[in-house]
Amino acid sequence: MRVLLESDRPEAREAVDLFCYHVAKETGALSSALAGLDALVFTAGIGEHSAPVRSRICGYLGFPGITPNEVANERGDAAIAASGSLPVHIIVTNGEVLIARHAVNLPDVKSAA
């Protein structure tokens, strides 16, 4: 994603726009299935580190009341919603730690055989 955002090629811009559109589309579908949306949370690599992607996704999600505070978004604040918006958060994750925690609790394959 970083390479696409840094590129001036029209295809790169289109790829980023398509990605953001699909994330927003799936968010809308899930919020419909859940009968609403209480908050939007960005996490993991792109969600934590890409202000332009967060901004574009939020731009597609104005209809349920999501508006980012662009200054907070650019800074990467934990809360990036504009006043009057549904809550929008950035939550830092560490996938490797979560995998390690779950792996510790797996049964020993050798002793199970």
Instruction: Assign the CATH topology.
Output: Nucleotidyltransferase, domain 5
CATH architecture heading = 2-Layer Sandwich
Helix fraction, binned, reads: 55-70%
Regions with pLDDT < 50 over 5+ consecutive residues? none
By CATH, the superfamily comes out as: ATPase, nucleotide binding domain
Termini separation comes to 43 Å
Helical segment tally?
7
Arithmetic mean pLDDT: 90
Helical/strand content category: mainly alpha
User: Looking at the structure, what is the overall shape?
Assistant: globular
Order of strands in the sheet with the most strands?
A: 1-2
Q: How many strands? A: 2
Biggest sheet descriptor: 2 strands, parallel
Organism: Rhodobium gokarnense
GO molecular function: kinase activity
Protein name: Acetate kinase
InterPro entries: Aliphatic_acid_kin_short-chain, ATPase_NBD
Structure write-up:
The structure is a single chain. This protein has one domain: 2-Layer Sandwich (Nucleotidyltransferase, domain 5). The protein is mainly α. The protein is globular. Strands 1-2 form a two-stranded parallel sheet. It is built from 7 helices and 2 strands. α2 packs across α4. One of its GO terms (molecular function) is kinase activity. It holds the Pfam family Acetate_kinase.
